[in-house]
Amino acid sequence: MPSSNSWLSRHRNGAFYTLALILVATLVCGGVTAAVHWGMTDAFAEADAKLDESKGGAQRALLFPDATFEKVSAPAVEGLVSVYKTDSGDYVFDVASKGYHGDVEVMVGITSAGKVAGIQVVAEDETDGIGTNALTEDYFGTFTDLDASGVLTVEEPGSGETKVDGVSGATFTTKAVVADLNIAFEAYAQMGGK
Fold first, then answer.
1. 98-131 burial by CB neighbour count: b if 16+ within 10 A, else e?
2. The pTM is what?
């Protein structure tokens, strides 16, 4: 058999040849991955939006079970994530404020009569058995039928503030829930509520 004296045949078992093959394979794989990502970005974003909407839709339905929801333009209020209005004039405000370990995001339902209809947890990372004690139906129930106006506080109230009860041992989370309610109240007022 004739032997080839080309540079490639002489160095095919060397480190440089192996490195060149690895680089070519990496470039090809990276190019394919980038092309798929670029081509599928819109589809991924749309799928993520649909998933987020389905999760949020279920939580909104817990606040107003028989309602149809429409996303409406949200006022510029820090901590306000989104606003939905029902066919009967009720609102659901998705709001977030700082808790102990991160943001405590909740949905606050406010009726067309300007009363708190309920609260649903969207996302939180509070300490189990401590901070989460302020994220219970029992605690949220203390706000049901409360006027959605003014400013709430768990400390000594100042002028125009209303003192509400906190949850012992869950100070940071309690303050986050109260801050979330205050964000929803401010947004509600800017949208023409009380």
1. ebbeebbbbbbbbbeebbbbbbbbbebebeeeeb
2. 0.71
